[in-house]
UniProtKB/TrEMBL annotation:
UniProt keyword annotation of Thylakoid present: no
Pfam families to which the protein is assigned, alphabetical: 4HBT
GO MF annotations in UniProt: acyl-CoA hydrolase activity
Protein name: Uncharacterized protein (TIGR00369 family)
Family matches, as InterPro entries: HotDog_dom_sf (IPR029069), PAAI_dom (IPR003736), Thioestr_dom (IPR006683)
Keyword Cell cycle recorded: no
The entry's keywords: Hydrolase
Signal sequence residues: none
Domain annotation Thioesterase: ranges: 64-138
Length: 152
């Protein structure tokens, strides 16, 4: 349960709707989980978020395969939301680096992004995203990224 004055999933949903470019909003992303505080006793916990990108033919290339460009934009957006969780609020940022390793094609399935902040510094953030097919929960891609935290 969110305490008064605490940044939570409703705030993250507002950022998702207000901050991103219209074409990113056209991906119809939704936030499934927003992890701002560790559960008791979990030493390996990392702040982050799980997002869903619903399947759409508009995102597919030849052969009905969800295109890499859509997956990369999805991973980048998910990592911004993970940074919101790590920072416990909105902070201007920009992507410095993103490396994507595609593992298999995804067809006719929503895609899930599990985005986690591995290290949050004063000026930089480093994270990882695992993209999975929602149909069988098998990994589609692994993404590592770095973000610069900008002055507010």
């Amino acid at each position: 349960m969110q305490q008064a004055g605490e940044f939570g999933i409703d705030d993250a949903k507002r950022v998702l709707g207000d901050v991103f470019a219209p074409w990113v909003q056209d991906l119809n992303l939704s936030i499934e989980q927003f992890d701002i505080a560790p559960p008791a006793g979990d030493a390996d916990w990392q702040p982050g978020a799980i997002l869903r990108m619903p399947f759409s033919e508009r995102l597919c290339r030849n052969g009905g395969i969800v295109c890499g460009q859509a997956l990369m934009a999805f991973a980048d957006t998910a990592m911004v939301l993970a940074n919101l969780a790590a920072n416990k609020g909105y902070r201007p940022m920009t992507t410095v680096d993103q490396t994507t390793h595609f593992m298999r094609a995804v067809t006719a399935s929503d895609v899930l992004a599990d985005a986690r902040v591995v290290r949050l510094g004063r000026t930089m953030s480093f994270g990882r995203v695992t993209l999975s097919s929602a149909t069988d929960n098998k990994p589609v891609a692994m993404v590592s990224s770095a973000f610069a935290m900008l002055p507010g």
